[in-house]
Amino acid sequence: MAVVANERDIATEPFGVNVKRQRLLTEVRVKGTHVLLDRWTLAPGAIAELDVPARNLAWFQVLEGEVALTHVGGEECLTAAHIVFLPPACHGTLTSRAGAALLYAEVPNAGRFDPAFSKIPLRLGIVDWTREPVLASQHDARKRIYVVTPKLFGTKAIKGEMIIYPPQTEAPNHHHEGAEHFMYVTQGRGTAWANEKPFPVKKGDLIYYADRERHYLKSEGEEDMVFVEFFVPGEYKTIWAPGVAVCTWLPTGRDLQGRKPAREIRAHSSELVDSPHDV
Q1: List of residues 6+ apart from 50 with CB closer than 8 A
Q2: What HEC string does 48-89 produce?
Q3: Along the 279 residues of the chain, how does pLDDT read in single tens digits?
Q4: Which end of the chain is more exposed for a tag (fewer CB within 10 A), N or C?
Q5: Backbone angles phi, psi at 210, to 5 degrees
Q6: What is the DSSP string of 104-172?
Q7: 3-class DSSP state for residue 170?
Q8: What is the rounded CA–CA span in Å between residue 53 and residue 158?
Q9: Prior bond to 261 cis, omega within 30?
Q10: CA 181 – CA 208 distance, rounded (Å)
Q11: Strand 143-148's sheet: what is its strand order?
Q12: Residues 277 and 150: beta-carbon distance below 8 Å
């Protein structure tokens, strides 16, 4: 059965200077998980060290506020529009003058999920997901934005997306074979199903689905439900329930504000694989 936990119900622990960490996804909460997820709360004047082990990869997403990332290549100012990919052996420092919050995830021994992991040098990468190209659902008003793909960061070990569900939209029932994945709700509320059993979800919820667990979501209320979802490994199959309208995503040529995006997705494969090389 899916694992659901809200950040408000998880204890905090000191981490760095003026930083508190909440362990949302751990091996204790989900036995055998291949991805670990924390929520970090940075108070004014916070300092947090980043130190990714040589066999791991990581990413973080700013949820609110602003942080400065200092690394070997310089310094970056990051906001809630940014998602950062951290390669193996990456070192850096996060600071915040006024306070911030972020998600931090790490995949231990990531080479298990990508045969080319040790052959291709991976680099730190920063995505402004509000400038990335939007893909629109062919069947309703949902939107999809890729934020971690092989084309962006060079590895098949992990794949990530931002998903936007306008009110009263929902996905068809399906499951994945070959990957576990989690969702973290950044805005709104709705209902999720796991093996046809419903449960409410809202902002701040972590939703974890095991490999082959059937699931789908529906947004409710008057605002969009927005969530980030990540899959480990980044290649797997999606199996749709009999009789449902299979999700098809069409490139719009625009970002969320209707502008020309930071890059183009001219054609998007509709094959039932989940680390498409055209994104």
Answers
A1: 58, 69, 71, 86, 90, 91, 92, 93, 94
A2: EEEECCCCCEEEEEEEEECEEEEECCEEEEECCCEEEEECCC
A3: 788 888 889 999 999 999 999 999 999 989 989 999 999 999 999 999 999 999 999 999 999 999 999 999 899 999 999 999 999 999 999 999 999 999 999 999 999 999 888 888 899 999 999 999 999 998 899 999 999 988 888 999 999 999 999 999 999 999 999 999 999 999 999 999 999 999 999 999 999 999 999 999 999 999 999 999 999 999 899 999 999 988 888 999 999 999 999 998 875 554 454 445 557
A4: N
A5: -80, 165
A6: EEEETTGGGG-TTTTTS----EEEETTSSPPEEESSSS-EEEEEE-HHHHS-SS-EEEEEEE-TT-BPP
A7: strand
A8: 16
A9: no
A10: 6
A11: 3-6, 205-209, 180-187, 225-232, 159-165, 143-148, 135-137, 249-251
A12: yes
pTM: 0.93
Tell me the residue type at 50.
L
Q: Which two tokens stand for residue 183?
A: 């969702």
Q: Which residue has the tokens 């924390």?
A: 38
Structure tokens at 154: 């060079």
Q: Which two tokens stand for residue 145?
A: 């934005």
Kind and range of the H or E element at 260?
A: none
